[in-house]
Design brief:
CATH superfamily of chain A: Probable tRNA modification gtpase trme, domain 1
Strand order of the largest sheet of chain B: 3-4-5-6
Number of strands of chain A: 10
Number of helices of chain B: 2
Shape of chain B: globular
Distance between the termini of chain B: 36 Å
Largest interface: A-B, 13 and 14 residues
CATH architecture of chain A: 2-Layer Sandwich
CATH superfamily of one domain in chain B: Folate-binding superfamily
Number of helices of chain A: 4
CATH topology of one domain in chain B: Folate-binding fold
Radius of gyration of chain A: 19 Å
CATH class of chain A: Alpha Beta
Radius of gyration of chain B: 17 Å
Helix content of chain B: 10-25%
Oligomer: heterodimer
């Protein structure tokens, strides 16, 4: 009988969960303050001034000012992220226009996917077209990754930020790690 | 993978991001307390099941979150068009004796009746 160990390679059970695979690396993002912001079009100028950036009004666009990002999620909905943990709710205190702002800093977790194979890793579970012509740097979209809903944000040519709900984070990380081990 | 055009995102997105939400253009009676049980059942429960074009509400739930309306062919599952919620119902019914106005890239679906004749 042939020796099965002659051809089989040992693959530890948790190997896929190790980060830093050859062509794509997965890094849990640091803490950030986040805001779910909803408002009618007439409130956008005042909210933009209060936040210090221009809220995007075109689909899939994001605006950036330093460590602060505003991601278009829908015609009246934005995800505002501040990586320097600056208080966002207080920034809107004096806006003086009708809007809804909910602090979701701790609802979301983020995973940074970067490397030459980043788009391939994401496309293993995400149906979006991630070619640079359609999804350029600064593009963002709420979409799905396998069975979880994510917000995908392209921060660089080969850098993506994946925002998901924190209870989904272990699943999302495992899905990405499995793909990263194979690209 | 079936692609659906979201009129709010302005591009074709995967069907995985969408949920169907029933028939579109169902008018709610002006005074719902005054209508009879039969009229209420007709408004609330009974829906057409057409073979051909159907007007439906869809929601881009894993995208922009918006409801919109879609015209779908129940035979081929092809989305003929989508339009924003609140816009008037487009009239796609063909004039008598004229073939339905389907997009140029759509081909007729091969059905059993067309290839084998009707089973008697």
């Amino acid at each position: 009988m042939a020796d099965p160990f002659a051809t089989a390679a040992r693959r530890p059970a948790l190997a896929a969960h190790a980060s830093g695979a050859a062509r794509a690396s997965l890094t849990p993002a640091g803490p950030a303050t986040r805001l779910s912001l909803r408002a009618k079009p007439e409130a956008v100028p005042a909210l933009s001034a209060a936040l210090g950036l221009d809220l995007p009004t075109q689909p899939k666009r994001a605006a950036r000012q330093g460590e602060r990002h505003a991601l278009w999620l829908g015609p009246d909905e934005w995800l505002v992220i501040d990586e320097s943990e600056a208080p966002l709710l207080q920034a809107l205190d004096g806006a003086g226009v009708l809007h809804s702002a909910v602090d979701i800093s701790h609802r979301n977790a983020a995973i940074l996917v970067s490397g030459a194979g980043a788009a391939a890793v994401l496309n293993s579970g995400c149906p979006l077209n991630l070619s640079p012509a359609v999804f350029p740097i600064g593009a963002c979209a709420r979409t799905v990754l396998s069975k979880a809903e994510i917000v995908l944000y392209r921060t660089g040519e080969t850098d993506f930020r994946v925002e998901c709900w924190r209870s989904f984070a272990p699943y999302v990380l495992a899905v990405l790690a499995e793909a990263a081990a194979e690209v | 993978m079936l692609l659906i055009h979201c009129p709010y995102c302005g591009e074709d997105r995967s069907e995985l991001e969408f949920r169907a939400a029933g028939d579109a253009h169902i008018a709610r009676p002006a005074n719902i307390a005054a209508i009879s049980d039969e009229e209420f059942a007709d408004y609330f429960f009974l829906r057409d099941n057409p073979k051909g074009l159907i007007y439906e509400r869809w929601r881009h739930i894993h995208g922009c979150g918006r409801f919109f309306n879609a015209v779908r062919d129940t035979v081929s599952d092809k989305f003929v068009m989508t339009y924003k919620a609140g816009e008037p119902k487009p009239d796609l019914s063909p004039a008598p004796g004229v073939a339905p106005a389907l997009p140029a890239d759509s081909r007729p679906v091969e059905t059993y009746e067309a290839t084998e004749g009707r089973a008697e």
